[in-house]
Write a structure and sequence with these properties.
- By secondary structure, the protein is of the alpha/beta class.
- The protein is about 25% helix and about 15% strand.
- β9 and β10 form a beta hairpin.
- The longest helix is centred in the C-terminal third of the chain and has 19 residues.
- The model has no long low-confidence stretch (mean pLDDT about 90).
Length: about 250
C-alpha cells in the first residue's frame, strides 16, 4: 500500500511514522508513505496557500489552486488513486471505513488547515473523512490516525496476524476485557474462567463479556453489530464481572 500525504506541515509526521506498527510495515516494504509539502505546489512568488474568505468572516481559507495542482501532480502516475480530504464535514471514521480504504493500493490524503478549505476542493477528491465531532488545528493528526489504523491491516505489519480480527469494532462490538499477570492485584482477581484452560468456556465468556461491555458503554453499536438470537439476550458474563469494580 502506498499512502501519499499532502500537507503544509510534513515535519509533523516524522516521529509518529517512525515507531511501532507503521514503522514495522514500512520496514517490511508492505507500506510506503510519501509526504508532499502543499506550499511547493502553490503558484506565485510567495507560494501562498490561503486567503481571506469571500463574504467576510474570521480566519483564512485554504486556496483551491495549490490543492488542485498538488493532487494532479501527485496522482499523475497512479492507476487508481483514492483521494481523501480530512475534513470536519466528512464521514466519521470507523472500522468499516478503514477496512474499505485498506482495499486501495494508492491513497492520497489531503490535510486541511486554518479556518477551512475552499469548498471547490471537494470536487477534486473521492471522499471526505472526519475523526470526530471536535475541532483540531488541521488535518495532520487525523491523517496520522488514519495511517495508523490502515497500517494495522497491511499484511505482515502485526506480530500476530489474528490480532487485527480480534479487536474492538471488528464485529461491531467493543472488545472483551483483557487480563495478564499477576492473577491478583490489590484485591482484584482475574476471572477464574480465564485460568481454567477450557477454551470453549473462555470463548463463551469473552463473547458474553464483549456484549455486556458494549451494552453498558456503547449501546449504540448494538444496532449495527452482527448478533445471533442468543446474543440478543445479552446475558451477563458468568463467574466474574468482566470489569474491575468501581472505587
Amino acid at each position: 500500500m502506498h499512502i501519499h500525504v499532502i500537507t503544509l506541515f510534513p515535519e509533523m509526521f516524522g516521529s509518529p511514522l517512525g515507531a511501532s506498527i507503521p514503522k514495522r510495515a514500512q520496514d517490511k516494504g508492505t507500506l510506503r508513505i510519501f509526504l508532499w509539502n502543499l506550499r511547493d505546489f502553490a503558484p506565485g512568488k510567495h507560494r501562498e496557500t490561503d486567503d481571506t474568505p469571500y463574504g467576510g468572516g474570521q480566519g483564512m481559507v485554504m486556496k483551491i489552486e495549490p490543492i488542485a495542482i498538488a493532487l494532479e501532480a501527485v496522482c499523475d502516475s497512479m492507476t487508481a488513486p483514492w483521494r481523501v480530504l480530512l475534513s470536519p464535514q466528512g464521514r466519521r471514521l470507523d472500522h468499516a471505513v478503514v477496512q474499505r480504504l485498506a482495499g486501495h493500493e494508492e491513497i492520497v490524503l489531503v490535510c486541511g488547515r486554518y479556518e477551512g478549505v475552499d469548498a471547490r476542493a471537494a470536487s477534486f477528491v473521492d471522499e471526505e473523512v472526519s475523526i470526530g465531532d471536535f475541532v483540531l488545528s488541521g488535518g495532520e493528526l487525523p491523517a496520522l490516525v488514519l495511517i495508523d489504523a490502515l497500517s494495522r491491516l497491511v499484511p505482515g505489519s502485526l506480530g500476530n496476524p489474528a490480532s487485527a480480527s480480534d479487536e474492538s469494532f471488528v464485529d461491531g462490538l467493543l472488545e472483551y476485557p483483557q487480563y495478564t499477570r499477576p492473577e491478583e492485584f490489590r484485591g482484584q482477581r482475574v476471572p477464574d474462567v480465564l485460568l481454567s484452560g477450557d477454551h470453549a468456556r473462555i470463548a463463551d465468556w469473552r463473547r458474553q463479556a464483549a456484549l455486556q461491555r458494549t451494552r453498558e458503554r456503547r449501546p449504540d453499536l448494538l444496532d449495527g453489530a452482527k448478533l445471533t438470537e442468543e446474543d440478543r439476550g445479552i446475558p451477563t458474563a458468568t463467574g466474574d464481572h468482566p470489569d474491575p469494580p468501581e472505587d
